[in-house]
Amino acid sequence: MAAERYRLVIGNKNWSSWSLRPWLAMRRLELPFEEISVRLRQPDTKAQILKHSPSGMVPLLVDGDVTVWDSLAILEYLAGEHPDKGLWPADRKARALARSAAAEMHSGFMPLRRTCSMEVLASISPLETVPEDVEADVRRIIGLWRECRAGFGQGGPFLFGAFTAADAMYAPVASRFRTYLPDLAKFGDDGAAAAYVATIHAMPQMQEWIEGAKAEAAAQAG
Questions:
Q1: What is the spatial distance between Cα 84 and Cα 87, in angstroms, rounded to a whole number?
Q2: Apex 208 CA angle, 23 and 189, nearest 5
Q3: Buried (b) or exposed (e) across 134-169, using 16+ Cβ within 10 A?
Q4: What gap in Å lies between CA 31 and CA 6, rounded to an integer?
Q5: Distance CA 198, CA 85 (A)
Q6: Hey, which CATH number is domain 6-85+205-221, 2.60.120.620, 3.40.50.1100, 3.40.30.10, 3.90.1150.10?
Q7: DSSP 8-state code for residue 125
Q8: pTM above threshold 0.90
Q9: What is the pLDDT of residues 122-154, one digit of tens each?
Q10: Residue whose C-alpha is closest to residue 30's, from 98, 85, 76, 90
């Protein structure tokens, strides 16, 4: 059997939101890859990652003699290597909005990320008190999703109709919302954001990731 073209180095599926992003995109777009998992939050985690990644962080994509680290950089690389897969919208205006939304996720929403770390195996645990800065992040994300869906989402259930890199970038946010902020109506959602969270979780690839997290947890417990 021929070796896979790509290798993707990732962290634990329960926690590693940045790893989820390119993993989900590659699974969704049916780009085969060898998965290399590094267990996070261990004394030797940094050393193990450094065997693969010059940044000492996950994820990392290896394509022959090319290495690409950082989730958004990996998605951009894959979009360039596979233009037929539609990882960014074809329409110029939609593509500009998708890239802007993805970049905003990449560099922003720190209060939400600090307060609500991704744990895909966690039971629904609504925050008793939502800090003002977290609420501001949630309202901004809901508004952004609404803008994407209203402007360009008529062709399907994702932000731009069909699945794009923007959906990969916001999948961990959907997970956080489901765990910590399940009632998005409290933050001005008209139902569109809740439907989008359900869309992300209904993806077979997202369910595959969650099942992988369960398998990792069972192996570590044993």
A1: 8
A2: 80
A3: bbebbeebbebbbebbeebbeeebbbbbbbbbbbbb
A4: 8
A5: 23
A6: 3.40.30.10
A7: -
A8: yes
A9: 989 899 999 999 999 999 999 999 999 999 999
A10: 85
